[in-house]
Amino acid sequence: MRGWGAALLLVLLLASPALAAESGGISLSDIEKEIAGAAAKPYSLGGFLEFEPTLFGLDREAAFRRIRQFEKGEGGTMEQYDFGLRLEGSYRKDNLSAFFRADGQLRRVQDGWTHSTTLMEGYASLKPHPSLVLDAGKKAVKWGKGYAWNPASFIDRPKNPEDPEEALEGFTLASADYVKSLPGPLKTVGLTGVLLPVHEDVNGDFGVTGHLNGAAKLYLLLYDTDIDFMFFGGGSRSNRYGFDFSRNITPNFEAHGEAALVTDAERRSIGPSGRITIRETDAVSWLLGVRYLTEKETTWIAEYYHNGAGFKRDDLKGFLDFADNSYEGFRRTGSKAALFRTSELANGPFGRPNSMRDYFYLRASQKEPFDILYLTPAVTSIVNLQDGSLNVLPEIVYSPKQNLELRLRAGFLVGGKDSEFGEKQNDYRVEFRVRYFFQLP
Amino acid sequence: MKTIAAVLLGALLAAGPAYGLDGNEILKKVDANLQPESFESYRKLINVEPNGEKREFLLFTLKKGKDKLISLFLAPASDKGRGTLRLGDNMWLYIPNVGKPIRITSLQSVIGGVFNNADILRLDYNVEYDVKGMKEEGKEYVLDLKAKTDAVAYDRLKMRVDKGALLPTRVECYAASGLLIKTLYFKELKKFEDGMVRPAIVETDSPLYKGYKSYMVYAQMKKREVPDEYFTLNFLPNVGTIR
């Protein structure tokens, strides 16, 4: 009786005009067919095309400008045009899957064209058990909770704090990831082990060659707090120990932190004559940050970063004095030898983003102001707390159509003589990035 | 005569399972009728702009128990590979480029537009809301729902429930200030793989986005039991491999 009643009710309901009302031209059957096709497809291939012209406003008095462009004219601006193609693909069959991401770039600067192709990641995954994932190949593991910096990300390339969400090139490695869910306050335990060989032809830029390095990470979700402990050892770089955490204090307020102890970290300093002194000392780097979403949907991200292995003001001053002396020597004698040496250092340790001791990062982004959908203006600033120099990066990201993203961004560098941002090559830059995303059927 | 009346009454009772239920019991039945406790689904989210232009997102979702949920964007190309994980009030977003999950809140939107994370990672209503009041209006119950915690995206819901089917027909979502944020309309009953009958289309409009409409279209939904370990940060980058 109950069954008949329910059946009758079902028939009535399926025919009910109130529930089967007009649905804005949405065809359920078409969507069902489309989803059935997408659900069954074991592969994917897509990516994006990119075009990015950039105008640099050069700082004629800055040390990095003199080092890098000592033979160039006195032009106040420089143009650069980048054309990029990213391809990403994946394939899965049973418990085996494979993934790759590759970038191709064509760049036009005043000297002419350059090009590069990079396999960013390419690895195979095997899942012999729901708790276990084995990966082998080139992969970026991206440890750490910091947004702009990750001192405890021991086996990744450093990210660009001005663009921390951009993909990173990985290293060739093998990893095993074991995870277990538990009842109670400790909800998840995860253990990741990584083997990273370093030879001339494999990961040669990671560190000292001829070593098989090991790294491990223990992850805990304890009392709604993400906690990680990391370790790296093996010989290509000195031993490192790390820790991070992340927690929502309130639904809209997240706090995170990260710390790393690098044993025998190399600290370089340079005298005005170019003599480099290297000494080894343990260095502790750490970071504290918050992310806050206001009722009006402004997202604030703030981080303080102490780079224990970073340069002190005297180190930078020594380098800049050497650069000045080298440039003056070139002007007097025409000898480029010292400038080439300076250039090497400028493209190495002294030219790396945020290579000094103490920084503050602040970013504010507003989702869809004035009810303009798919528009996000933001402003970011990185302040060197030692010398007070800073950069400011206002930007607007807009997606006028699905799969099309436009980003207009400027960067202004502010700082006096002998300061980090004040001695950079540019005073400002303006860039306009167009990305068109595609997915092959 | 009495016998006929008794039979008719019996039939009505058989078809009307909500008789004698209080508001919270009705809400639990609504939840059970909308989705199994553990399931996988494929959904399409469609934002229709005032000029008629559409933006479409395809999502794969796995839910287990009361508070474990993962979603993966399969399309469009610009969002493909983004994954979200929810464990109770904890929510994370995984962006392939960024490579590591970041904590998010239910109020944010991972895709922009009218849908926010709470819509995409919705748990059962009875997990997040208590029924504070109930009345009957014609063929519908009207439930007044209050969020159990301030971590829930909408502070109050006014849910209209079809008395016979015990399925929602309309849900109004309010902020704590009393501001109407959006209204959901449940449409197009469809029989899914496991025999479940539920609305296949959830249409949304919002006074905050005048002229815009959004649709969440359920094309596949079926019961699926998966290990707890799939609902972890470690596994989030691998969700695409278990579809």
What does this structure look like?
- The complex is a heterodimer of chains A (441) and B (243).
- Chain A has helices at 2-14, 28-40, 63-68, 313-333, 337-347; strands at residues 43-58, 77-93, 96-109, 112-129, 132-139, 171-181, 186-198, 211-222, 225-233, 240-250, 253-270, 276-293, 298-306, 358-366, 375-384, 390-401, 404-414, 426-439.
- Chain A has 441 residues and is mainly beta.
- Chain A has a domain at 1-111 and 396-441.
- In chain A, a hairpin with an 8-residue loop joins strand 14 (358-366) and strand 15 (375-384).
- In chain A, helix 4 runs antiparallel to helix 5 (337-347).
- The longest helix of chain A has 21 residues, at 313-333.
- Chain A is globular, with a radius of gyration of 26 Å.
- The model of chain A is unreliable at 1-22 (pLDDT under 50).
- Chain B is globular and about 50 Å long.
- Chain B has a 13-stranded antiparallel sheet.
- Chain B is 14% helix and 44% strand.
- Chain B contains 4 helices and 13 strands.
- At the A-B interface, helix 1, helix 2, strand 1, strand 2 and strand 6 of A face helix 1, strand 1, strand 2, strand 11 and strand 12 of B.
